[in-house]
Batch of 4 targets.
Target 1
Amino acid sequence: MKHHKYSILLLSLFTLGSCHNMLDVEPHTFSSGENYYENEGQFLRAVNGAYGSLQELYTVDHFFPMTEMVADNTNYQFDASDRGAQQREEIDEFLITPTNNYVTRTWDMLYRNIQQVNVIIDRIEPVEFSDESLKARYRGEAQFLRAMQYFHLVRLFGGVPLVVHEVEDPEGAFSEGRASVEAVYEQILADVNAAIASLPESYSGGDIGRATKGAALTLLGEVHMTLHNYGDAADAFEQVLNLGYDLLPNYADNFDPAFKNNAESIFAIQFDAGLQTEASNFIFMFGPRNAKDELIGFSGNLGGSNIPTPSIYRAYEDGDVRRDASITMFSDASNADFEESKAFDGDIPFIGKYYHPPFLEDGRADENWPVYRYSHVLLMLAEALNETGGDPYPYINAVRERAGLDPLSGLGEDAFREAVAHEQRVELAFENHRWYQLLRTGKAVEVMTEHGIEEKERLNRLSSASYMIDPHKLLFPIPAREIRLNGFEQNPGW
């Protein structure tokens, strides 16, 4: 088969970002030249740049629609005048096509990061380091990041091109075509186990925020949960229990910039409003369109994306402190112009987790994005133990106690399975885990079909074709550009 390999060639031309704190270096152009990777300092910049790519993944408006808005936790605030948001709406309503730009951009950014870490992994071995454990750590950080990106790709798209070496020229790009799902998971497990062996348990000073052994073990556990290897998952999570993490007394503090990288934070995308290129922007994407200066303190347009649904609002039990910590209501007469306000007595909800004013007037915020928190580990461990005959109650009840809820006891296996799924939904709401949870538990078609019925009843704008949850739509289509340029087969049904 003739392969046209132009799209991934661009990966080697992107620039690397930098992160404040543990990534406190000036941005450097990403280089794969023969003369660059020759010393420790250059590899440090390269690893920092790979972390910097994660910042962009979380501050543009295409990744969260594919991991949270596609599920039942959030939708969007419709504005007929903003046709630029149409492709986000297509994702939310399951009207997506292979030409959707949000899907293409997510694919591009994940592979860009993979190319960056491949260069590090391929070139680091012959370079002399004053401390060989530092070399091993850099390699482990790169392997952790590669595993994480492929874990996103395989869950979103199924079998994908498995690129594990530096792409040096167009002829080397995607030459193997799409790998099987099994082969992708094999590579993920190899990378994450290698990372576990070489990453430290913690960091100090400016290195805080980098990938740790705890982050890699948590990733390993979630991979095994997805593969239904519950015993292996429980083993990984139980190792995390011994690494010194703990629940914060106050749930809301997990998202407050004043408590970054706290005892509950296992891995978070690092942001700093003090640096123009390193700030987060979640509230500016998620805040109600009509709020503007009432919420952010200066004139500006908000995105109206990732708006909490009535379904997630109702999901919190009476007395659950997490609802008010996660969802904030915007009250204004202009809400009457938007259908979304009808289910909330004229208010429009937005994600309060990421709302901590005051903000800088050029649209800079200071929140980190939580990827893995200790409460997530406790709930996944409880789920795994329920599947293997262990005692799950200490772990789920620790999370519920922090939320102000009564403990659970005496549930059968099926009832506990539903209880822990519910607990994960509300504990991790708006943290980009809901779609993956529905996929791995086999509930996506059932839950999203029911969700679609409710959405059609309350939103007149939806068409009869909206929320037709055919099984093939559980995977996103391979971007049409990749089909055209590389000759890949499309996912069945698309």
Target 2
Amino acid sequence: MQPITSLTDVLDDGAVVSVERQRRLAELLGEGGPYADRWDVDLATGVLRFGGRAGTLETPAHLVGSAAPGPGTWMWGWSNVNGFPPPVVARAAAVRDFGARFGLAELTAPETPLRGEPRQDAVEYAMVAGLVNGGLPHYTADAGNGTVVAFVLDEPQASLPAPSCATAATVIGEALMGGVVNHRRAVTAYAELRGFGLEQAGDEVVLQAGDGRLVVRFDGLGRVASMDARLAKD
């Protein structure tokens, strides 16, 4: 992985793989998913329960934090002002330790000013938590009065399949529309995190997987200029 000097670096590192993980989670919990109708959380035990046409899904949930429009701040779960059991906030504490290692103030202060709208901040910090904790999907929910609470989930059904160049072309494109700053960093970080074969030469990055190759070309400003998926025939 490349050097980390800012929160933006971390957000770029996790941008593409987060899109892929959230797409997988949405198959379960999103609109039309088998567990999409209702949810509730028990923070005493660290369990999120989702209900739908397939019955009930219970999944281990770890509180990342909450974004509140009143004070205009994000509060990390590790500050634990509500006295939740340590395992419920342990994933958030790992983000604090990561932030301390790289000197990232946003990850080490118990409470920090919002960088955008509450939902945006909750999603971004949850994405960081998922990345730091080895690759977990996240879930954000309305806690009332505009406050958005964020969790990362240990849900086996949301695990990712083997890397795919066909999927990579789609999720890279979606991630870039979400405000990635350093396109090349985001693409190469995704390749490394997902276990693609990776080649770099000049203005090209080539991802290799069992279903073929994806050639990503960058312009003079380092932005993705084109993607060419060369998929293997069955």
Target 3
Amino acid sequence: MQMSDWTEMSAVELGQGIGKGEIDPVALAQAFLDKIAVHPLGSRIYARVTPERALAEAEAARDRAAAGQRRSPLDGVPVSWKDLFDTAGVATEAGSKLLEGRVPDADAPVLQTATAMGLVCLGKTHMSELAFSGLGLNPVTATPPSVNDPEAVAGGSSSGAATSVAFGLAAAAIGSDTGGSVRIPSCWNDLVGLKTSSGRISLDGVVPLAKGFDTVGPLCRTVEDAAQTFAALEGRKGPDLRGASLVGKRFARLTTIVLDDLRPEPARAHAEALDKLAAAGAEIVDLDVPEIGIPMADAGVLYTAEAWAEWGETIEADPEVMFAPIRERFEAGRQFSGADYLRAWERMMAARDVYYAASAGFDAVLCPTAPNLPPKIDKLMEQGEYYVTENLLTLRNTRVGNVMGTCTLTLPTGVPSCGLSIMCPPMQEDRLLRLGAAAERALA
């Protein structure tokens, strides 16, 4: 293997190379740092690079490998972190001037765990401001482009996380997902993205948006990478994906809301993906659950009320430093009372009961990850109403997983910027990843 090839390999392949003594972790980290430094999009993807930390962690990984004491399959593999995970002594600003100069004293616990498992921190990636947009447009800091269209957004809010992997500037990335922020950028950059269950991974030291929905998850090249990265975030051994098959599996094709107004490419990609799964032995049955429309209609209450409660005072102290469309999303939350929020939450929990009863006979539920393709940056900047409507459409399908409380995996379909989502009940990530591994082979 040549160094020039390392930045295009999967995280698991790199880990295997380290384990065999074929890849030096220090040289590997330096290869990524060098590529970031010279890449024309490096500064639009990374908010801050941490070379001293990366090389020190890589040296420790090299020593462990030499002693036969590697801590995980990804020990020594370089990854990026979304700029809302606290990093000791390094600014964590969540893509916002409101947090400019904010330097935490300690790493977030999830970063501490990943570091203990041997992951090497390359730096912090750009994101939508305070994580409150699915588009990834951020004129305040930087807007990474989609890997498939340099004039289009990358998806958000984990925009830099996705592009760091898609452009070969990290082997894997860690992001967060509140309404689709891992899945949308993964989808639009042809990656695998895992939305974990609420409460599965600690949110301590993670800049919040809406704590009732915030989750942490990986963005990766392959399902195997996602499984091993997810395991590293939890400090445990990864799930066994060997022998995963779709034969005899029964999937529900959700028809409520998620198939409305699909653009031509996502519609074609979804139909072709389902055909491939069926050809691999899966049974696919349509499923309509009208009750999920109630919390989807309440999403404006649920999300903006939490977000305004979290950030309202900070925003009111300096509103002009924010990108106006995102500030306005936050401000929409101040119209709702505590009673409004609690009633919406109760309706959501009732809808979850109906959804899980209706889907109980299936191995998983399927839907298109995004109903649209990445919008053009210029058009989003020039047309305020287009920004609003396209952002809401972008997040519509992924938000189903958040309001229903699922764990969800998005996979590339082979059609650029079009993904297939597989949803399972909460806390079933390992089973979901086995299904994903089988589906990944079928879609390939």
Target 4
Amino acid sequence: MSKIASIEISHHRLPLDPPFKASWDGRPRHHFDATIVRVRDEDGREGIGSGDLMKGFEGHEDLFIGHDPRHLERHYEVLSHINFHYGRCWPLDLALWDLAGKVTGEPVWRMLGGRSDRVRLYASSGVLRSPSEMAEQAERYIEEGFPAMKVRFSSSAGGRSSWRDDVKALEAIRIQAGSRLELMVDCNQGWRMPWDTTMSWTFKDALAVAGELEQLNVYWMEEPLHRSDRKGMKALKEATSVRIAGGEMTRELTEFRDIIEERAFDVIQPDVALVGGITGCRRLVYQAREAGVTFTPHSWTNGIGVLANAHLTAGAGDAPFLEYPYDNPEWSEARRDYPLASPLKHAEGWLELGEAPGLGVVLDEERLAATRIA
């Protein structure tokens, strides 16, 4: 059997004009960076991954070269040690799954269990707009066939003045959409950008917001408290009928294990590009199912990350919806997926994964050459 022959990592930057002003940041983003991981075997096949920056991986290539790319559990253990000592190098796990699929001739969703070859999507917005503009955006999502939309609340002084203004935007969406659209809310309280020193909500703040969201029939409220406050999250979960979701930036699978065992959240949202890779997160799929907790990944990286999370969710999971980062014009499919030869396209709110071996990633080599940075 052909062994791993090489691992290559490259970094790329796409200028954004007009800029993207994310609700969780507040400062306009004038470029979008992507890291591409390529794993090649001795027969010339190539697996592709992307997501985090792969900091700390350099110098560890020899731990993988010469090994069978299909020995995914072995590679996961090595990556978990690198994760402990250095950075989050989980994009390599994605690339190894892609390569293993090309070796076996199977799509990853089938390798993971084959429950389905497609996933239902929710449109994940990222920009803070006026109430009327948010309502118009919701109508566009409905026209495109999305069954659900995630609305962002402001996380800092760079956005709306208070959560009450956020609720006004949500009310406008509900009036426009009626019952045609499930609504989720990302409260943006779980973590902050490095420059942002504003405090997260208190439990009483979150409880007051939950009361408003109940009236608007919101499906879940995401990250309503600081990420470390699991007791507060559980108490909020028990105090409201709105589902409590979180965990998108959690760094260790053991933290998710504790969240599931404690029933602290209704919905867990790991991202295979940021924690555990596909190999680690598939453990969470089974743990969550047995505990009655919903598993539906965060996927705000790029199209490669969306595909990887979709394959796990389709193949092994049973999520009602999967996150689809999509907020025209600032966050279009073309911007999000610039490393790909063709941006991902949903079909009436579904993402079809098809029969292509591996993850189905096809890179735009010309674009990657033009955007490559040192």
